[in-house]
Amino acid sequence: FVAAAADASKLTATSSNPSVVKVTGVTATGVELEALAAGSATISAGTGGTVETTCAVTVEKLRIVPAFNEIEMYNHFYEDIEYTVYPTWAAGDFTIQMESSGSVVCGYGGIAERVIPQYSAGTTFPASGTITMKLQGREDVTAQVNYTVKPMLAMVGTLKVNANMGNTDAI
Predict the structure, then answer these.
(1) Which residues of 8-30 are buried (b: 16+ CB within 10 A; e: fewer)?
(2) Closest CA to 47 of 66, 68, 69, 26
(3) 34-84, pLDDT tens digit by residue?
């Protein structure tokens, strides 16, 4: 809805569900809205107290979707956790914070999505736990990734080395 310049001072707009969509501004060029929660609302706009147009608005729930629900890592080797914030067209600064239920350091090397297992000697492998991803400032937007950590090197038997120092005929 765009009001004629002469009617701009009389332009009004309301939301049928202000807990979902709030009208934050009304100008001669349009109506500014703020999405507050998932749901639907009808925006009514007009001049001089007369509704001249309506617009249905649907707000989708903001969510984090990890690329994988489960990952395998090796102790002391980092992994980058891939994810997408949906809906993909949502506006905002989506900073992800990660926490681990075990000995996995989140945000390794200053990269928020990078995790590295830091299990000490004597740990029984495989070790497992959960990484929780949270949208900064939005405790209601979370996702989880289960992980399994394997040792860097596992000896499963006796290692026998036969060093042949340049004598290939003896092989």
Answers:
(1) eeebbbebebeebbebeebeeee
(2) 26
(3) 988 899 999 999 887 788 899 999 999 999 999 999 999 999 999 999 999
